[in-house]
Amino acid sequence: MATSKHWDIFCKIVDNFGDIGVCWRLSKQLQNEHQLTIRLFIDDLNVAKHLIPALDTSLAQQTIQNITIISWHTDTKFAHAAQVVIESFACELPPPYLALMHPDTIWINLEYLSAETWVDDFHAKSSKRGQLTRHFFFPGFTPCTGGLLRERQIANTKQERINNQTPQQDFLKSLGLPANNDLKVSLFCYPHAPIASLLTAMATSDQRVSCYVPASGILSSPANFFERDSLHAGDQLTHKNLTLHVLPFLSQDNYDKLLSSCDINFVRGEDSWVRAIWAGKPFIWQPYLQTEQTHIKKLHAFLNLYFSDCDQTSKRSAFSLHDAWQSEHVSSAIWQDYLNKLTTLKPYCAKQSYTYAQQTDLATKLVIFSDKMIKNIAENKV
Ligand code: TRH
Question: Is pTM beyond 0.90 here?
Answer without folding.
Answer: yes
